[in-house]
Amino acid sequence: MPVFDDKQEELEHYETMMGVPRGRLAVTMDMITDAMALVGQHGVYCQSQRWPGKPVMDIQIIMKSLTDAKELIQSVMAELKDRR
Fold first, then answer.
1. Is 19 left (phi over 0), alpha (psi -120 to 50) or beta?
2. By the 8 A CB rule, do 66 and 54 touch?
3. Rg for the chain (alpha carbons), in Å?
4. pLDDT, tens digit (0-9, with 9 covering 90-100), for 32-67
5. CA distance 51 to 13
6. Are 25 and 70 a contacting pair, CB within 8 Å?
7. What pTM does this model have?
């Protein structure tokens, strides 16, 4: 699995600090946050003709999906923490 090779150091760090499930979720959160930053930068250059000052609709949808995914991951991490 390439992601385990690419993110080996980060995974080891977070898994040691938080345990395997929460550590992997923490790395996933970092990856989603990075994706959100890239999409946000793209949204600055791809402005909607219909709504000036807002990114095009597909970028808005992608950002909403990433934000929702991040929220779900945070809820799972909290659930796992409470089970300890």
1. left
2. no
3. 16
4. 999 999 999 998 888 888 888 889 999 999 999 999
5. 43
6. no
7. 0.86
